[in-house]
Amino acid sequence: GGYHGKSTLLRALAGGVHDRPPGDGREYCVAVPSAVSVRAEDGRPVSGLDISPFLSRLPGPGVNTARFSTREASGSTSQAAAVMEALEAGTECLLVDEDVSAANFMSRDGRMRALIQDESITPLLYRVNGLYDELGVSTVVVVGSVGDWLDVPHRVLCTDRYVAVDLTQKARSVSETFSYGHVQYAGRGVVHRLLWNEAGSSRAPRTRAVRNAGAFGRPALTEDRRRIVLSPSRAGAANQDADAGVIDMGRCE
């Protein structure tokens, strides 16, 4: 519900990248140093960034989402850019608040999928498990109105009068009642299966990202040599690697 502390908790996690002195009141709210908040920013510029994992195409002549540039991004393109920039910078945790996100970037319900089948946007809802399993990147999402998110999490916390309560098992029961054991998107096949029959509520990622010390010098690689993220707009003129700017998230389905 509203005014129970969801967004406040997320902001506290965002601030948890900094050390706090004892007695500050926030010293027990800790996040990994690379955690970053991502949100929609209508009107922001984007230069030479690959947002194709979320937007396969956009209208207009010569628009290439694999090397997307604009002086005035929309809500969905700006948030896709924010996620890809965070991955490029080496984040291990994305912090997302429904209240400041683009609705069509976050999720898409069954009725809209049935009405608009040729949709170019793959919402974040259908990417979060792939990001975790393949790249080792966790996503903390604050939601209060879209129940589709109950189909994908490893852990569900409810804030009730500013107290966090674990509702993972209840959320799984709700998901079993309203879903069919898998999530399918726009006729493209099953994008991920739900974890109802697996022991526990979480699992370790199959691969972890191996990042170079010079994060913007060469593309970061996973253990099985799949390319993650490096945009040529941030690689620097000295980087002549043929793989620069390529984002292979095909297995994040």
From TrEMBL:
Q: Where is the ATPase of the ABC class C-terminal domain?
A: 1-183
Q: Name one Pfam family in it.
A: ABC_ATPase
The stretch of residues making up the signal peptide is: none
Protein name from the UniProt record: ATPase of the ABC class C-terminal domain-containing protein
Recorded source organism is Corethron hystrix
